[in-house]
Design brief:
The protein is an alpha+beta fold. It contains ten helices and 14 strands. The N and C termini lie far apart (42 Å).
């Protein structure tokens, strides 16, 4: 399994193309774009509609100027409308009801205009005060039952949220994400260099999926961020790519195998930035995925 994963990563690495655009370095690879600033801050982006297509969902796309509008026709007659820019970056995702009404699920329109640098999307806030035990702030799925997982992913922010934030601000701002409790899905471990979730491990996501399903049934517009992580072995670019693909693998399983609506999930890879075990060596514990509810950050609401 490790060899197969390494071969797949080698293939991606061989197909990367690097260019310089202004004050950032752009690294393009199949399905992903990696951006490195002069301050060595590095992020990864992907086409936000690719996950829908990979799942074989009934979608159709139309180019409108510089934007692409992709519509997913749900079996219940509603439509999920995703608007992306020329690079595949999400601008807005909404649900269109059968009566024509439309509700915005994710608004990712940049506050300071469309050409903002990604570094300007990093929000710095003081660390939120933690008034609960740390093991209930970051919950290990392997040691938790469905009740605790549900409580964790539906809990309000641990500190007041100053305003409404864009999805990219949430993705790139650890201080902001720290306002929400999270579940470390340590029941899933990845082989080194691989983003494959083996069938026996996929079944371990059932408890997570059941909790998410309950949350979505209660509030259909909930948004959950699936975060991918790696250990510190290898280059930061390789690890960003690996972690992003790990997050997408888990999100796809939650939809394909357990029926979690694709529109209620979004993904982001962080590479080796947030190690669970502080080691520069090979660590299965660091090759993991985390789930976090981000709805209050996107809406600016501080209550459940």
């Amino acid at each position: 399994m490790a060899t197969q994963g390494a071969n797949r990563l080698d293939d991606i690495r061989s197909r990367r193309q690097e260019t310089r655009e202004g004050d950032v370095t752009i690294i393009r690879e199949p399905g992903r774009t990696i951006i490195r600033g002069d301050d060595d801050r590095v992020i990864i982006r992907r086409d936000e509609t690719q996950r829908f297509r990979d799942l074989g969902l009934d979608t159709r796309s139309e180019r409108r100027g510089e934007e692409t509008v992709t519509v997913y026709d749900r079996p219940d007659g509603t439509q999920i409308v995703t608007v992306t820019d020329a690079e595949g970056r999400l601008i807005r995702r909404s649900r269109r009801e059968r009566d024509g009404g439309e509700f915005v699920i994710i608004d990712n329109v940049r506050r300071d205009g469309p050409q903002a640098r990604f570094a300007e999307e990093v929000v710095e806030l003081p660390p939120p005060p933690l008034r609960i035990p740390r093991e209930r702030y970051i919950v290990d799925a392997e040691r938790a039952d469905e009740r605790l997982i549900y409580e964790t992913i539906t809990a309000p922010p641990v500190a007041p949220v100053p305003r409404r934030y864009t999805l990219d601000e949430v993705r790139y701002s650890p201080d902001l994400r720290a306002h929400m409790r999270s579940v470390d899905i340590d029941t899933i471990n990845f082989d080194s260099g691989s983003w494959t979730v083996t069938p026996d491990q996929a079944g371990r996501l059932r408890v997570i999926a059941d909790a998410v399903r309950q949350a979505v049934e209660r509030a259909p517009n909930e948004v959950f961020l699936v975060e991918g992580h790696t250990d510190a072995v290898g280059s930061d670019v390789d690890n960003l790519s690996l972690s992003d693909r790990r997050a997408q693998s888990v999100a796809e399983i939650l939809t394909r195998d357990f029926g979690i609506p694709a529109e209620n999930l979004t993904t982001q890879g962080y590479g080796e930035q947030y190690l669970k075990i502080q080691t520069q060596g090979d660590s299965r514990e660091n090759r993991r995925v985390t789930l976090r509810r981000i709805t209050p950050l996107l809406t600016g609401q501080n209550q459940q």
